[in-house]
Every structure is written in structure tokens, then in C-alpha cells.
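Practice problem 4.
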């Protein structure tokens, strides 16, 4: 039986983004029982999983984690971190672990640390796939062994159960591998017996900290209070406030359906949810329902997919700017012809793309006819090939045409503005997500591995 509301500080949207120490202090004064935060995402691409590195710099992560570890130790409440080190692979978790141990040594803290690993063994995945336990998500097709082998690292996106187990075992600090944001934030409330509907819904609303508030840049964190009938949410900054619109709208964040959210082991259904302002800062939510489903976890796998070399020019020629689509097509054809006649079959399976910044580089779509010519554009040349050496050779072969291509064939050769010399810039490997699949499991703990570091025992020894 749940005794009173379970209060959880969500100090920021992602560890390293900037925790406000005064907000954490306010949350403790309001009676918080736990601190929970996400620490990563796939938003910035596949490289962070493939390489096992963080997008955030070490100093920013250390600063935020130090504030949270100190606060948790002083209040005697757990600190829960998910998707450690940006991507949640084993290397990412270990990177965050080393930071936590450094902080503990500097501050004289002695936490019991649970490390939850979610990286998967390729042979085990192949066996599960052969048994029919893995199915694709659109737009991919069935998984094959070659795709598994092409991944540098593969993680399962964990649910709440490994976190609940670590909390039950007395963890003061949990550093989790790849996990859904909501699982990290809901785990403590689930441990304490909160209803699954309100616990998961509160976690979804609070996943990005103050993004569920009216003023998204005023402060960083929120406090969620989960009880037997629903939950409340309020920003930790006194300069901010939540209202029913700001809270309910967050169900659409990274979610195509504003009423249903699929999570490991079930679907959160907020079709009947009601959002009511308690005052000018707090919102109460009731009517959230958890619909239990067969347990599945999403698999994410990343690996390299060739190498790239770049070149960059700026163009202010009014003749070119008035005929940009034509210029793009003519130059691209000329560059490919240049590669085929100078390198030939040795170029292999290569690709050249031209990205016109200031025209259509972001969308790739051709602007409607009659769109006014821009004042200037930047053109990025991208050569992708099987090796870095070949990508650079392709760029070198194209150098003269790229910098001096005339839109009118018989005109004098122009010279476009170039930003760097040497002009070709080796970008390195291209990383891509290769898996978009889910795996069915009977035991929610089956794909998680827990390792403990108990600094209190080390001190006693």
C-alpha cells in the first residue's frame, strides 16, 4: 500500500546539460525521496554508440553528477542515472563510472554503486534471432547475421525492472546503460508501490525536466509527486510554472500518438487523463492507465558505413544564384564524370553529394518555382567511399571543377570563395544505426547485467 506521495527530483533533461544546484536544494526541502535523470539519447546520431564516447564534455558531466551525488548523500536518497555517457553502451557506462568514482574520492562520499549494463553479445542475439524472438520495426526488414556483425556495439533499451532490483538491493547511485527515459524516472515510484499508470505518465512528462513547464528556459528541473490516484508536477525554479497545456503537450514529445506511449512490458494510455491546475505553478494529472503487454525491448546497433572527405565553397555570383538547381545538377554530373574518367572502377561504390546551404541543404527539397535567389550560398562537397584514402582521392579529383565550375559552359572560369587550404578535409568514418528491431523476452532482467562497487566495504577493508 502506497503511503503518501512519492517525490522525485528530475534535475535536468540530460546529465551534463546543466543542473541548477539551488533547484536541487529546493527539491530536497520539499521532501524528495529520490533524484532521477536521463543522461543520453540517439538524437545526435550513431557515432556515440559506435565509438563508446559521450557527446557532452567530461567537465560538464562531472559538475552535474557531483551536485547530484552530494545532494543524494546529504539527504540519504538514491541518485538514478540512465543511458550513461550519451549512448548507454558498456564503454559509456564505464566512462561515467570513472567520473563518479573521482567525485566520490574528492568529496569523501562512499556510495554503493550499481552499474547496469545493457550491451548485447552478438552470438546470443543471433541465437535469439534464429529462434524468432527478434522482429523488425518499420522501415527495416528481418534481421540477419551480417547486420548484427556489422554493428560495433548493440544495446537493448532497458525497462524499469533492473533499476527497481538495484534499488531493492540498496543502491545509493545507479549508473544505467541504454534505457528508456521513462523507465529511469518511474523506477523508484514503482519500487514504492505507486500505480503503474501514474508512475509512467509522470516520468514521461518529466523526462526533459523543465521542458514540460510554460517557460522552458527558466530553470532546468521539476519535481514529480506520485500518489495512488495520479501525480503532480511543478518546476523547481520559482520563476517558472506549469499549466495543463504545457504538461499535456509533452506527451507529443518524440511520440507520434499523444495518448499512447509504448514502453517495455506495456503501453501507457492517457486517453482518459485529466490535467488540472492546482495553483499558478502546479498541475495535477489523473486517469492515466498502464496496459500490460508481452515484454519486449528495442535493440539499437551502430557501426561504420564508409569514410568521408569534405570541401566547402561560398558563392555570391548572381548568375549562379539565380539558377541554383540547374547549377547543382550540372556540377554534380560533371564531378561524377570526372571521377569516372580519372579514377574509374577503382573508386568502388562511392557517392558524391552537394549540399547548398542557404538554399535547400537541410531539406534537400527543391524550393518552389519563383523562390527569390539568396544573397549567397555555401556549397558543401561530400565524398563517401569505402576508405578514407579513396574519399580524399575523389575530392582531389574533383577539386578544380568544384572551385571553378561555370554554369555556362563557354564562359570564363569563375573562382568561388573557399574557406580552407588544403581544401579537402578528411571527416573520418561515417556512423549509422543498423538495427531498428525489438526482442521478445520472458524475464525483464534477461538482457541486463548488474555490477556493484560498494565503497563502504572498501573503506572497511
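Answer key:
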Amino acid at each position: 500500500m502506497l503511503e503518501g506521495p512519492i517525490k522525485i527530483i528530475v534535475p535536468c533533461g540530460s546529465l551534463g546539460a546543466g543542473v541548477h544546484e539551488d533547484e536541487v536544494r529546493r527539491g530536497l526541502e520539499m521532501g524528495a525521496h529520490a533524484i532521477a535523470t536521463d543522461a543520453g539519447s540517439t538524437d545526435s546520431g550513431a557515432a556515440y554508440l559506435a565509438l563508446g564516447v559521450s557527446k557532452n564534455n567530461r567537465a560538464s558531466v562531472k559538475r552535474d553528477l557531483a551536485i547530484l551525488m552530494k545532494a543524494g548523500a546529504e539527504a540519504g536518497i538514491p541518485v538514478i542515472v540512465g543511458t550513461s555517457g550519451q549512448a548507454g553502451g558498456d564503454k559509456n557506462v564505464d566512462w561515467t563510472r570513472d567520473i563518479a568514482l573521482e567525485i566520490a574520492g574528492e568529496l569523501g562520499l562512499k556510495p554503493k554503486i550499481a552499474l547496469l549494463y545493457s550491451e548485447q553479445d552478438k552470438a546470443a542475439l543471433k541465437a535469439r534471432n534464429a529462434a524468432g524472438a527478434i522482429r523488425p520495426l518499420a522501415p527495416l526488414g528481418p534481421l540477419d547475421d551480417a547486420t548484427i556483425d556489422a554493428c560495433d556495439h548493440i544495446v537493448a533499451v532497458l525497462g524499469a525492472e533492473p533499476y527497481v532490483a538495484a534499488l531493492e538491493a540498496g543502491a545509493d547511485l545507479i549508473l544505467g546503460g541504454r534505457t528508456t527515459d521513462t523507465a529511469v524516472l518511474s523506477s523508484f515510484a514503482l519500487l514504492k508501490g505507486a500505480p503503474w499508470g501514474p508512475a509512467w505518465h509522470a516520468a514521461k512528462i518529466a523526462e526533459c525536466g523543465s521542458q514540460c513547464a510554460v517557460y522552458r528556459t527558466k530553470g532546468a528541473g521539476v519535481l514529480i509527486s506520485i500518489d495512488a490516484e495520479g501525480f503532480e508536477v511543478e518546476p523547481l525554479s520559482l520563476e517558472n510554472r506549469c499549466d495543463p497545456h504545457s504538461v499535456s503537450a509533452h506527451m507529443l514529445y518524440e511520440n507520434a500518438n499523444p495518448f499512447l506511449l509504448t514502453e517495455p512490458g506495456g503501453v501507457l494510455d492517457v486517453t482518459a487523463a485529466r490535467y488540472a491546475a492546482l495553483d499558478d505553478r502546479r498541475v495535477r494529472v489523473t486517469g492515466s492507465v498502464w496496459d500490460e503487454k508481452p515484454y519486449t525491448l528495442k535493440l539499437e546497433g551502430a557501426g561504420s558505413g564508409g569514410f568521408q572527405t569534405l570541401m566547402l565553397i561560398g558563392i555570391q555570383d548572381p548568375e549562379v544564384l539565380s539558377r541554383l538547381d540547374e547549377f547543382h545538377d550540372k556540377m554534380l554530373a560533371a564531378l561524377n564524370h570526372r571521377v569516372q574518367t580519372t579514377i574509374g572502377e577503382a573508386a568502388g561504390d562511392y557517392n558524391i553529394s552537394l549540399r547548398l546551404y542557404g538554399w535547400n541543404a537541410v531539406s534537400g527539397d527543391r524550393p518552389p518555382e519563383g523562390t527569390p535567389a539568396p544573397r549567397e550560398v555555401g556549397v558543401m562537397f561530400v565524398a563517401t567511399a569505402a576508405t578514407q584514402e579513396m574519399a580524399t582521392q575523389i575530392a582531389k579529383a574533383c577539386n578544380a571543377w568544384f572551385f571553378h565550375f561555370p554554369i555556362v559552359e563557354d564562359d570564363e572560369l569563375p573562382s568561388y570563395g573557399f574557406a580552407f587550404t588544403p581544401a579537402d578535409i578528411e571527416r573520418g568514418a561515417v556512423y549509422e544505426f543498423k538495427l531498428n528491431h525489438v526482442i521478445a523476452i520472458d524475464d525483464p532482467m534477461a538482457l541486463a547485467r548488474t555490477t556493484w562497487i560498494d565503497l563502504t566495504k572498501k573503506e572497511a577493508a
